[in-house]
Amino acid sequence: MLLEGALFGLGSAVAGGISDLGGAVASRRVGSTRAPGVIVPTTALLIVAIFLASQASLPAEPIAFLGAMLSGLLGSLLYFAIYAALRAGPISIVIPIIFAYGGLTVLLSMLLLNEQPSTFNLIAALVATSGIVLSGVVLGGTSRVRIVGRGVAAALVAVVLAASISILATVVVRQTGWVPFAVVARVTNAISVVAVLLVLAERRRRRELDRGSPDALDATSVPLRQAGWRILLLLLVLAVLDVATVSLWLAGLQVGPTWLVALTGSFAPLVGILGGVTLFHERPRRLQWAGVAMVLGSGVLLAIG
Known about the structure:
Blueprint: H1 2-30, H2 34-54, H3 62-88, H4 91-99, H5 101-113, H6 119-135, E1 137-139, E2 145-147, H7 150-176, H8 178-210, H9 222-227, H10 229-255, H11 258-264, H12 269-278, H13 286-304
Antiparallel strand pairs: 1-2
Helix pairs in contact: 1-3, 1-10, 1-11, 1-12, 2-8, 2-10, 3-4, 3-7, 3-8, 4-7, 4-12, 5-6, 5-7, 5-11, 6-13, 7-8, 7-10
């Protein structure tokens, strides 16, 4: 069970790391709300197809059904937080922070799920937490510590949401299986995301009308049209990667310890750092590199401990 959980976590990390790099490109081109507005409904359709093909049944217990729905609602907030972080950047910093949710998950799994990681694992979790602090702050000219920017703030929100969803998903998935959980959570997720986007679109339309813009009625769809077919294709590819990420992660929670699946998923920042430095030409500071190294090192320690 330990090996299976670790392998599922690693597979989820690879798919998630690649997806986040593509998400950074897409969110900067079409916005941090429109990107998930395309990706989330598409992933919902794909997961519904998997559900129908598997001939699984919806969760029978009302508590399990409501738990899956709540996870979907929290997932909506998580998507917006992640894409806001990716859009604001810096990529090589926010991606490691997002995927360091595993350190918090270790603590929550002990408190809420009665899992018992070793002392070695707990030390590694502490290293991860320290790494998050270092990678998320820089020293200003007056020697005062300050947050890198809105991207880091959004990434920290994503950490809390991802850890909370991990615990909630574990409880439901082990009762119902990952496919029934996934279809309820993702359909709820898609409905809530689309509802938020429709509200934002209506507010934007009214602002444009108040300004007397002749293009007001078409204001919400113009950015996607201007993005070009390559970005739209990228969004579809990201939807497939997202399904792979979620499916592997949930399958891991079903067969392995929550803390192990979450922490092996923290290898994803390796992809983010490589992409941030090579594709976006970002240059993290030495203190931030130290923090990132601690986050990555803690992932290794937790995986082998």
